[in-house]
């Protein structure tokens, strides 16, 4: 029996490289490469020392969106009066844009993805 191997995608590698520091510092995320599945984003429950989610990515735009959304989630979780991107006030939105800036310097072609996130447009990216 021969396993099916996934070929590395240079665009997904660029996204992984751009977000590598963020992922390394994030207590609840890890991104790993599997020759059989592609990139796997692990969501980690650090209290119970287990995974609470895994997502497999073979599409660059979907991985980029998910990682940009994680940055938004960080801002939302730090905000006392907000529970979702649609409830972010102007200050929260500016903080999101500030945190996105280093990633968008490396990945400027994903600016539209970021605009869609802030606008709440998810239809383009649903599986």
Short descriptors:
127 residues, alpha+beta, 3-stranded antiparallel sheet, globular
What does this protein structure show overall?
With 127 residues, this protein is an alpha+beta fold. The protein is 47% helix and 17% strand. It has five helices and three strands. It has a three-stranded antiparallel sheet with strand order 1-2-3. A hairpin with a 3-residue loop joins strand 1 and strand 2. Helix 1 runs parallel beside helix 3 (60-78) and helix 3 (60-78) packs antiparallel against helix 4 (90-106). The protein starts with 9 loop residues before the first helix and ends in an 8-residue tail after the last helix. The mean pLDDT is 90.
Alpha-carbon Rg, integer: 15 Å
Helix fraction by DSSP (H/I, runs of at least 4): 40-55%
- SS summary, helix count: 5
Which runs of at least 5 residues are low in confidence (pLDDT < 50)?
Answer: none
The end-to-end span amounts to: 30 Å
Number of strands: 3
Range of strand content: 15-25%
Mean pLDDT: 90
List the helices and strands in order. Answer: HHEEEHHH
Class by alpha and beta content: alpha+beta
Q: Could you provide a short overview of the structure?
A:
With 127 residues, the protein is of the alpha+beta class. The protein has helices spanning 10-18, 20-25, 60-78, 90-106, 111-119, and strands at residues 29-34, 38-45, 50-57.
Set out the fold topology.
Blueprint: H1 10-18, H2 20-25, E1 29-34, E2 38-45, E3 50-57, H3 60-78, H4 90-106, H5 111-119
Antiparallel strand pairs: 1-2, 2-3
């Amino acid at each position: 029996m021969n396993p099916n191997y996934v070929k590395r995608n240079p665009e997904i590698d660029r996204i992984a490289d751009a977000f590598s520091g963020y992922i390394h510092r994030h207590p609840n995320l890890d991104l790993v490469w599997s020759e059989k599945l592609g990139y796997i984003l692990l969501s980690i429950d650090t209290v119970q020392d287990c995974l609470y989610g895994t997502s497999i990515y073979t599409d660059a735009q979907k991985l980029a969106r998910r990682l940009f959304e994680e940055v938004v989630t960080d801002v939302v979780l730090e905000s006392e009066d907000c529970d979702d991107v649609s409830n972010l006030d102007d200050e929260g939105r500016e903080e999101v844009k500030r945190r996105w800036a280093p990633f968008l310097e490396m990945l400027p072609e994903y600016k539209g993805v970021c605009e869609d996130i802030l606008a709440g447009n998810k239809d383009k990216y649903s599986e």
